[in-house]
Amino acid sequence: MSKNSHAHLATTGTVFTIRVTPNARADKLETDGETIKISVTAPASDGQANAAVIKLFATALGVAKTRLSLVRGQKGRDKVIRLD
User: Fold this and answer.
1) What's the pLDDT tens digit per position in 38-84?
2) Where are the domains of the chain?
């Protein structure tokens, strides 16, 4: 995945539904229609996976990490992230 590879999705106010897989072999982002699947190598403890998801997703969108907010799914695999 290259930087800004999903920049076409970066519209202010957009809400993304994401399925996360922590402890993966490699960091990757896949889209399947409406579903966005993100795999991260970080473990799911102490919010490490959430931070890795935000970082990876921000890079893919070509926006700053601070523009992404985790709205729902702090402890689950299904997350809702808003782009401010």
Assistant:
1) 999 999 999 999 999 999 999 999 999 999 999 999 999 999 999 99
2) 15-48
Q: Is 63 helix (H, G, I), strand (E, B) or coil?
A: coil
Q: How far apart are the first and last CA of the chain?
A: 23
Number of C-alpha atoms within 13 angstroms, CB side, residue 47?
5
Q: From the centroid of its chain, how far is CA 34?
A: 14
The 10s digit of each residue's pLDDT in 14-32 is 999 999 999 999 999 999 8
Q: Residues 13-31, buried b or exposed e (16+ Cβ, 10 A)? A: eeebebbbebeeeebebee
d(CA 19, CA 16): 10
pTM of the shown model: 0.91
